[in-house]
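Reading a protein record of the kind used here takes only a little practice. To see the layout at work, look at the sequence and tokens printed below.
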Amino acid sequence: MPTAASWLTRCNELQEGIPVMFRSFKSESTSLILLGVLAIVVGIIAIAWPGVTVLALVILFAVYAFIDAGLQAARAFSSGSAGPVFGHLLLALIDLTAGVIALVWPGPTAYVLVLIAGIWAFIGGCAEFFAGFGSGEAAGTRAMFILAGLVSVAFGVVLFARPGVGAVTLALLFGLFSLIYGVSQIVTGAQLRRTGQTLYSVVEDAA
């Protein structure tokens, strides 16, 4: 049977761990919300851009991929277990690779960009989908990872099915994908922040 001293020690350990746990939830939720806002902004630009060119789409896609890579890396270093760390680092590597290939490819065409974006969306979506079944995340967060992964995979499949689309159609597809993906990330971030606040209150009251 635990003594009063051991119980007091346990309470102190819980109280010391609360700020760290809460900061982890807050950091990851902030990254998700920023990623969602970025995706929505990119989506609006892609859809509303009059007379969009392939070169403009390449630059827009690369900028989005590079910023997404940075945010995924930040999420990896704020995660507390190996599974999420590996998953986020993998997504960051996929984003970085896709952005570099899009920029350095000589004479970019709509067809080449469709292939790059399709492969990027499909592989990244699969990684997010399987990350949703991993450990280390709340159930609601895992569900949103699965949803975001399915959206990405669907976008990739659509691009593979229609590789001959022009710049305007590609911009529309990429814009719609970014809007849907952005909303899902914001919802996930808000849910994760609420989960962190709830756990903070419960553990603090118990301690």
